[in-house]
Automatic annotation (TrEMBL):
Start and end residues of each OmpA-like domain: 147-269
Keyword list, A-Z: Coiled coil, Membrane
Higher taxonomy: Bacteria, Pseudomonadati, Bacteroidota, Bacteroidia, Bacteroidales
Top-level taxon of the source organism: Bacteria
This protein's record includes keyword Coiled coil: yes
Coiled coil (UniProt feature): 45-128
SUPFAM superfamilies listed in its UniProt record: OmpA-like
Name assigned to this protein: Chemotaxis protein MotB
PROSITE patterns, A to Z: OMPA_2 (PS51123)
CDD domains xref list: OmpA_C-like
One Pfam short name: OmpA
Native source species: Macellibacteroides fermentans
Entries under InterPro entries matching the protein: Bact_OuterMem_StrucFunc, OmpA-like, OmpA-like_sf
Length: 277
């Protein structure tokens, strides 16, 4: 009986010892796993901190880049606004110049039209004068056109006796025919110019060739205006003396050509001058 009890006690002790050691091992293993997990967690935390530092540095770099990019964008915007402003100024200036060019072209066209009209008037006037004076010889007078004017050069043989300012009958006939043309052309200016040769003259009536040329011109003007009704407002006399010869004064024939009275007719240029101003 004692032996049985002893055996049972020993068996119970052995069983109790086995259970306690097993629990210990389990607990120890759990502790070691926890320590391992803690070390791993620490390492992970360290890694996370390093990554956070890297991300923070990257964010700082991005902020710097963003700030610089923003500054660059603002500079470009300023430059763009400046360029747009300059472009607007250039466009405005270009438009102004184009308008001025258009006005100039319009003025040029108007001038050209007026010049063409003037040329047509001169041609028509030339034809009328030539037709009116058809019965006179080339020794008595000549009709020419130059510089937009019609010139009728009447010799002193046609108009005056030598050294005289009195217009004779043949000269009056020529002036009467010319007056018929002038009275139909109230939009032209008429200039009467007296010319002499270089032979000096000194008489009771004429002190010199200036006197002779001026008085001959005014004599023609009086006949045209008083006898034949040409408007005094469109006719103007002047004396040129010996200073605008058309031939040499060394010969009798040349001196004869220089002794002349020129009647110069030109369309009025009032409208043309106004346009040019």
């Amino acid at each position: 009986m004692k032996n049985i009890v002893y055996v049972a006690a020993c068996a119970l002790l052995v069983c109790t010892s086995c259970v306690t050691k097993k629990k210990y091992m389990i607990a120890e293993n759990g502790r070691l796993e926890a320590v391992g997990r803690g070390d791993a967690l620490k390492e992970e935390l360290v890694n996370c901190k390093d990554e956070a530092d890297r991300q923070t540095a990257r964010i700082a770099d991005l902020l710097r880049d963003t700030t610089e990019l923003g500054r660059t964008v603002r500079n470009y915007q300023t430059m763009l606004n400046t360029n747009l402003s300059e472009q607007e100024k250039l466009n405005s200036l270009l438009q102004q110049k184009m308008n001025e060019l258009g006005d100039r072209e319009k003025t040029i066209n108007e001038l050209q039209d007026m010049i063409n009209a003037q040329n047509n008037k001169v041609k028509a006037l030339l034809g009328s004068v030539q037709d009116a004076l058809l019965g006179f010889s080339s020794d008595e007078l000549s009709v020419t056109q130059k510089n937009g004017k019609v010139y009728v050069a009447m010799s002193d043989k046609l108009l005056f006796e030598s050294g005289s300012a009195k217009v004779d009958k043949r000269g009056k006939e020529a002036l009467a025919k010319l007056a018929d043309v002038l009275n139909k052309q109230n939009d032209i200016d008429v200039f009467i110019e007296g010319h002499t040769d270089n032979k000096p003259i000194n008489t009771v009536q004429f002190k010199d060739n200036w006197d002779l040329s001026v008085i001959r011109a005014t004599s023609v003007v009086r006949i045209l205006t008083k006898d034949y009704g040409v408007s005094s407002l469109q006719i103007q006399p002047s004396g040129r003396g010996e200073f605008m010869p058309v031939a040499s004064n060394e010969t009798a024939d040349g001196r004869s050509k220089n002794r002349r009275t020129e009647i110069i007719m030109a369309p009025k240029l009032d409208k043309l001058m106004q346009l040019l101003q």
